[in-house]
Structures are given as structure tokens and as C-alpha cells.
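Team,

Forwarding the record for the chain on the shared tracking sheet. I've put the sequence and predicted structure together so nobody has to dig through attachments.
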Amino acid sequence: MCGAVAAVRPARHGGAGRMIPITADYFDAAPVPDGVLVRMAANVEDTLAHQITGLIGFLQAPAVTRAQARLHRRVFPDAYRSRAAARDFRGRHAADLHDTAAAERVLARCRERSPFVLDRSELQDWLSTVGLLRLLDEPRRGGRRSVSGAWYGHIQDSLVLAADPGLATGWDRL
């Protein structure tokens, strides 16, 4: 745990007022004049760095087994309905699809420790890298969303809303 605090669990959640530990896991993004300010707990940085290292390995490795090939197809679905056109597209863009440069830049930032400010190009690196992590983590059809998948969604949402706070309008009408 990155630093625990005690909290009282409400009786309606089975706690009957007993103390439970809560970790200080957080990822925050806020708009600043020159980009997006990012703050996250050290354990979130470490976990994200570990996941990005796995993503880089995935992007660099060829799909050898059937399971790996299925995962590659899920992350990089056919761009065309025609199998021939989809295969041609993959052939032309294979290097771009498996480029690890953005993920490596995000990994370097995670290792620097927050807080730090992302400029627009770095923000794009983060959104595409976390998007790929979400695709790798997504359950098969009908499966339950994982905790890491929820975190990736939170990171993407936080970054997008910090980059363009105007997207968060209309909440008062819900």
C-alpha cells in the first residue's frame, strides 16, 4: 500500500461500522496553461510502468500461438471487410501498428515520478498507449470489466477532460 488511512465501513455494506484500510491510489490530471498537469501515487506509477513494459513486449513480439494471434486481431482489428484488403492494409502499416515509440515515452515519464506537465504531443502518446492497454485488458464478449480496465478508463477520461474541460458540461442536467 502506498499509505493507508482507516475508514469506517457502513453497516449496509456488511461492515457494521468496523475499520477497513483504504489505499491512497490516485491519478489526477488538471489543465494548466502549457498542457496537462499529471499527479499519481507512486504505486500507480509503478503499476502503470509494469503494464506499459508488457505492452511494449506485446508490440515487439510476433503472434506465434493461436491465443496471441487472437489477441493481436482484437487489438488491431481488420480495417476493411474484404480479407484481401485488410491483409494488404496490415502489410502496409505493420510497422506503424507495432511502433513502440509512444509507449516508451510514456514509460519514461512514469519512471520520472509525478507531478509533471504533458504537452499536446505527450498527451497523444498517453492517450494512445493507455488505449492500447485497455484493448489488451478488455474481457472477451460478455466478460466483466477488470479493475485495471476501470483504471485505464479513469486515466483516459481524466486526461481528456483536463485537455478540454469544456467536454464536461451538462452534468448538472443529469
